[in-house]
Amino acid sequence: MFLKDLLLVFLCAGVVVYLFHRLKIPTVVGLLATGIVVGPYGLQVVDDVHRVELLAEIGVVVLLFTVGLEFSLSRVVKMATMMLQVGVPQVGFSLLAGTVACMATGIAWNSSVFAGMLMAMSSTAIVIKLLADRGELGTPHGRISVAVLLFQDLLVVVCVLVVPLLAAESGQHHSFIWDVSQGLAMVLAITIVGRFVVPPLLYQIVQTRNRELFLICIFVICIGTAALTNMVDLSLPLGAFLAGLIIAESEYGHQTLAEVMPFRDTLSSLFFISVGMLLDINHLMTHGWSISLLLIAILLLKALTATVPSLLAGYSFRTAVLAGVSLAQIGEFSFVLAKSGLEVKLMTADQYQLFLAVSVLSMVATPLVLAGLPRLIDVIEQSPLVKSWQKYTPPEDDSIDELHGHVVIAGYGFNGRNLATVLKELKIPYVVLEMNPQTVRRERAQGQSIYYGDSGRESVLEHVHIEKAKALVVAINDPISARRTVQLARQMNPDLHIVVRTRYFTESFDLKRLGANSIISEEFETSLEIFAHVLREYHIPGNMINRLVANIRSDHYQAFRGQALGRTLLSFTPDGNLDAQFESCQLAPHSHAIGKTLGQLRLRNLTGVTIVAVKRKGQVVTNPAADLQLELGDVLVLLGQPEQFETAIELLELPAEGKEERPA
């Protein structure tokens, strides 16, 4: 029974993914492992694998649909430099190496090119999850990885188009050209219809304010476009990508993505499970040595194809290696291509099993290797060979030798840039260290005192005369580099005042131990702002809020652990009478208040409402005196309880003697 199989699949997936989460292994790997366990080569829990594969194919369609929705021309433009410097050579060399290696073993050229395509792709799901969990999305190697992954995602569509070309037999090229022409015509027709028909249609749907109708319409567009491309022998995923791209260009793209994401996560989970079901454990055990050697070769090769271009682009050894290893695994989109290749006989069943085994193992290996990689890089960087190779050669600049009592800023992001602007305005000497070569080149051309260099290296700190500096501000996104910078700077200058900006509160204790004087935690400062705003809403006195914030900071964050908080509040309980509000009232021409002073009105005595300001001809008089005479058109700002305002406004609206209230 299909429903029973589906229930068992999701039940096993929940258990396995939970266990993998506790072991800090990515969810994708857990889903693949679930498929291995419940599939025909495992415990044979699922009877009908083909029905699960049908749902999985829908999951692939939705997956490509969301890729199209997330596609943004501005993101591509922003990361274009990294894509060209690292993404193009990474994909190109991976494709070339895979093709040459397969042809050397006697595999046909078209199947060899197809194998190179499979090897070139990395796992967006795994890499983004790992970087996010480690807080490294904003680091230099994180930005490189994201740029390359985005470039690979764009190439998936090209690869989907190329697969039929590689599968075409020599006597069928004329037919293939006709099919491609039909396909291009269909893509053009879909684009035109999507540009001029879909936005007005969605506008009419949105006007109904019916969420279910909007969601149905979105799925009709997604599945319908995929079906149209399939009619001309193009793939379903390509049509789904085009549908996502069309909607992304409209004003409904963000809402569509939010609605589709839960379906994508659920259905794409079935895709990864179905891939795991096809992995033959016996084949893995039988060919263990060959699979292991191939796995090591692919991991090393793919790591090099990203590491070397990163080094040539001017990034440090640490950044380049971390980026290269992050991208070393085979990606989830390779599974999509592999299933297509198996159907059109670009790979045999044995080759498919070999691909599955190596791909799954590469995904499992990535988080394990990255966990110990930073320490390994530390050891490698201390070797004489690497030290001599990446010896720091500072640019010729005599002005830096004159620095004394200056500020060293490590990192020229948002915080570093603002600090540099203030220091320059106050004529306080400073020097900036930045790891992005493009930023350094651009800012130096504008006269900024900025140098390319890793602040975690002794020779770089020597060049900016850290021993003569008064302060060091560490504003970089890499927590490991931040700790190395603090430790090294403290050793080189014991009197240096070190200020570190960090993202997470838990990093503060290590930085303090290594020698930082002040740690500014984004997480901590945000929490202070939040509770300060909440307390103001309850009318806690401002001086008491300021005292509470000061005490928490001076206690080195200990108040959040239940200490000192009670002392700071001094048993203060908010008084309900403080729940006052503001209201305003403009004097009408008939009002008896015109010409009278505030003292003569006696508004506070009669209603309990206080006039705290008077707005007259664009000017505001705060705390007005009792002898202030009111004029026509004055706006009175009133302070009091909500129930008091009605009485006060009625009193102010009373007509003067001899005047009648006239309708406006």
TrEMBL record:
Example GO molecular function:
monoatomic cation transmembrane transporter activity
- State the annotated membrane topology for this chain: Multi-pass membrane protein
Task: List, alphabetically, the InterPro entries matched.
Answer: Cation/H_exchanger_TM, Na+/solute_symporter_sf, NAD(P)-bd_dom_sf, RCK_C, RCK_C_sf, RCK_N
List the transmembrane segments: 6-21, 52-74, 86-107, 113-132, 144-168, 180-202, 214-247, 292-315, 354-373
The cellular location(s) given in this protein's UniProt record come to:
Membrane
All copies of the RCK N-terminal domain together span 404-521
Which keywords has UniProt assigned to this entry? Ion transport, Membrane, Potassium, Potassium transport, Transmembrane, Transmembrane helix, Transport
What start-end ranges are recorded for coiled-coil regions in this protein? none
Signal peptide feature range: none
Looking at the UniProt record for this protein, which Gene Ontology cellular component terms does it annotate, in alphabetical order? membrane
> Which GO terms of type biological process are on file?
potassium ion transport; proton transmembrane transport
Ranges of residues in domain RCK C-terminal: 570-654
**Which PROSITE patterns does the UniProt record give?**
RCK_C, RCK_N
Report the sequence similarity comment from the record: Belongs to the monovalent cation:proton antiporter 2 (CPA2) transporter (TC 2.A.37) family.
Kindly provide the name given to this protein in its UniProt entry. Sodium/hydrogen exchanger
